[in-house]
Amino acid sequence: MRTVGIDLGGTKCLAVAFESGKVVDERRVPTPVGEAAVLDALSGVAVAVIDGAEVSGVGVGVPGLVDRGGVLRFAPNLPGVVDLAIRSELETRLGVPVRVDNDATCAVWGERQVGAAQGYDNVILVTLGTGIGGGIVAGGRLLRGANGFAGEIGHMVVDPEGPPCPCGQRGCWERYASGGGLGRLARQAVAEGRGARVLALAGGDPALVRGEHVTDAAAGGDSEAQAVLAELGWWVALGLANLANAFDPQAFVLGGGLVEAGDLLLAPVRAAFDGLLTGGSYRPSIDIVPATLGEHAGAIGAACLFDVGREI
Predict the structure, then answer these.
(1) Nearest C-alpha neighbor of 304 from the set 22, 109, 129, 160
(2) Integer Cα distance of 228 and 36 in angstroms
(3) Cα(104)–Cα(152) distance, rounded to whole angstroms?
(4) Model pLDDT for residues 9-32, shown as the tens digit of each residue
(5) Is 3's pLDDT higher than 70?
(6) Fold topology of 120-291
């Protein structure tokens, strides 16, 4: 039977119709501003991909804290959206069961069902984008925590003296190991006289240096840019080691835009990881692999929150 999955992001709302393990239709619209407009967008794309078919449910992944009642309590990238009862509102509009979860929680479930995490019962997805998101599967089940808020791994503090984070803390992991973190590392390198090619790609203005300038230069063979990516890789590995110490996973699946750098990032992450992991040489190896579902991971995972009408 068809299920529908929606990934509500800061800039776009992507819906897929999922049937027999495949995406059979999709729609996307820009993410609007305001609670009423967000609900209209969600119901609109859902109706478009349902397209008159019988569905067992609609899953929605959203970027924020979602409680077990399907209420979005807080979403820093959705201005004006607080305590929004997405589940009950959409069930009233659509007349079908609705499940709402964090977008990275949905993404890890999608990767486990049909992506890079297939075959792993204990796996952590880490999305390396503008910030860092996370989803955790433990013992073959999604780990949501007492309130549904588990997986906010980007806000582990790795340096209490570090740069301020929009969450209100200082030195969060995502300040160092995300796309924003890469930009900060690159601007620091330029200020120290490293990264001439990176600076050129930014038009010669150090203030305009961004992470994409580093990855472009590194892909072109620039050794200084590759060194900045290696520094980023160390910070990524530090967070992964902390998570491995806490959760003992079989694998990490890395997603998000930074993973498009491929082995330019994955190789230094893997190289640094074992040395940062407690007892790394005495424990079974932990796989570190790239995600495979790309921008569809969250929507597919949301659709997979229903299995023949049964909520996951």
Answers:
(1) 109
(2) 43
(3) 9
(4) 888 899 999 998 889 999 999 999
(5) yes
(6) Nucleotidyltransferase; domain 5 (3.30.420)
Q: Residue holding tokens 């699946």?
A: 253
pLDDT at 307: 66
Residue ranges of the chain assigned to CATH 3.30.420.40: 2-110+295-311, 120-291
Alpha-carbon dihedral sign for residues 293, 294, 296, 301 = positive
Tell me the DSSP string of 96-127: S-EEEEEHHHHHHHHHHHHSTTTT-SSEEEEE
Alpha-carbon distance of 236 to 234, in angstroms, equals 5
Kindly report the CATH class assigned to 2-110+295-311.
Answer: alpha beta
- Render pLDDT for 229-280 as a digit per residue (tens, 0 to 9): 999 999 999 999 999 999 999 999 999 889 989 999 999 999 999 999 998 8
AA letter at 1: M
243-255 as b/e: b if 16+ CB within 10 A = bbeebebbbbbbb
**Residue 155: which of 136, 176, 137, 138 has the closest Cα?**
176
Please choose, from the candidates 52, 38, 75, 39, the residue with its C-alpha nearest in 3D space to the C-alpha of residue 4.
Answer: 52
pLDDT tens per residue across span 157-195: 999 999 998 888 999 999 999 999 999 999 999 999 998
